[in-house]
Amino acid sequence: MNSKSNQTYEVAAKERTGLADVLRRFFDSDLWFSFRHSPVAIISMAVSILIVFSAIFAHWIAPTNPFDLAQIDLLDSEIPPVWLPDGDSRFLLGTDDQGRDIFSTILYGSRVSLLVGFASVVFAMAIGIPLGLISGYYGGYVDAVIMRIADVQLSFPAILIAFLIDGVARGVLPRAVHDEMALYVLVFAIGISGWVQYARTVRGSTMVEKNKEYVQAARVIGIRRGTILVRHILPNVLGPVLVIATIHLALAIITEATLSFLGVGVPVTSPSLGTLIRVGYDFLFSGVWWITIMPGVALIILVLAINMVGDWLRDALNPKLR
After folding, report:
1. What's the Cα-to-Cα distance from 199 to each of 179, 293, 298, rounded to whole Å?
2. DSSP string covering 190-257
3. Which of 79, 86, 84, 85 shows the shortest CA–CA distance to 103?
4. Any bridge partners for residue 101, and if so which?
5. pLDDT band at 14 (very low <50, low <70, confident <90, very high)
6. Which value, to the nearest 10 degrees, does the dihedral of the CA atoms of residues 31, 37, 39, 40 take?
7. Average pLDDT over residues 272-299
8. ABC transmembrane type-1 domain location, by residue (predicted)?
9. Rounded distance, CA 146 to CA 248, Å?
């Protein structure tokens, strides 16, 4: 029993030491130095984290649940923001035509937008990174086939590909499951339209890395190709991928908002920021501008913050700018 306890203690101590070493190396890195000396990066990261946490914990932060009929009163419909003459202190950003609190709908809508954005990026990376590694490492006919498919897809706008996939899914799937599958179809459509950037970037980095000494040494000692790709080359090509993923996240959120605004995104029962903007657009010219303007401002702030973080990360990971 004592020997097992000692072994458990030693393992835990090693884990703590390993974590401390990782944190120490991170705080001593050029990346952390660049972040600390960039006010724009600090503000953008803070805004991004604030929005993400607000969306995750919307059920605690939001004053009301805008999709709970028991908490909605039609008599509270179209109340302006609190700073306007007819504003109500209960509704910071006003209410919509159904009496729902705009601030609460933005928090819940941001959750859906971020979910679609993150899931789309992960899906695109899961396709693009392996294809880029295989294409860059093996070359030849494999590289030619993958890159020609990528070239064909690049000739079509991403929004058009998403429209096509959404239309095919709506035609194939039964009407009864359209709303249930809408989120999955949207993630697939946005993800499949964005894998090319990852594949082309990883391919170029892999073609450089595969000719370096450490890869050649791994080949000489008999390490399998799959192991070389995963353990040796992949960690050294992830820098540009992180930059692309950050920028692609903002683009995925914009694409989702565009599709939802056009009526082919997520259903009204689980609206995103794009859906909220579309719903409020019908009241824009009747003087009830806050129903569409407030979600639009929230979308702009979210995308701008993520883009600015991506710009900083691109510069920080660029060795020519160090």
Report:
1. 32, 37, 32
2. HHHTTHHHHHHHHHHHHHHHTTSHHHHHHHHTT--HHHIIIIIIGGGSHHHHHHHHHHHHHHHHHHHH
3. 79
4. 95
5. very low
6. -40
7. 84
8. 110-310
9. 21
Q: For residue 85, what is the DSSP state?
A: T
- Give me 272's structure tokens: 């995103």
Residue 97 corresponds to which tokens in the numbers above? Answer: 């035509």
**What tokens were used for 52?**
């993400």
Classified as helix, coil or strand, 316 is: helix
The domain spans of the chain are 38-321
Q: Which CATH architecture has domain 38-321?
A: Orthogonal Bundle (1.10)
Tokens 């700073």 identify what position? 83
Tokens of 151: 């070239």
Place of tokens 């090509």: 237
- If you ran DSSP here, which 8-state letter would residue 80 be given? P
SS3 (DSSP) at 146: helix
Find all residues with CB under 8 Å of 227, minimum gap 6, and list them: 218
pTM of the model: 0.83
Note the pLDDT of residue 121. 92
Q: List, for residues 81-131, the tens digit of each pLDDT value.
A: 888 888 788 888 888 888 888 888 899 888 888 998 999 999 999 999 999
